[in-house]
Predict the structure.
Amino acid sequence: MTTLIVLLQAVVDYLPIGYGLAGIGAGLVAIGAGLGIGNIGKNAMEAIARQPEATNDIRSSMIIAAALIEAVSLFAVVACLLIILK
C-alpha cells in the first residue's frame, strides 16, 4: 500500500493539475461501474427470459460479477481520493 501512496504522490508532484485529473478519474470510475453493472443486469434479464429454468444460476453469476465490478471501482475511487486528500 505504501508503494501506491508513493506513486500517487509522485504523480501529484509531477503534474500540478493532478488534483483535477484525480477528480475526473473518480467520476469516470463511477460512470464506468454504473454502465458495467447495468449491462450485467440487462444481459441477465435477457438470459432469464430465454431460459427461465436457469434463473438461480444466472442470478448468482450476476451478483458475483457485480460484486467484482464494485470492488474494482471502489479501489479506483479510493486511489483517486488518496491523490486528492494526500
The mean pLDDT is 86. Residues 29-86 form a domain with the F1FO ATP Synthase fold (CATH 1.20.20.10). The radius of gyration is 18 Å.
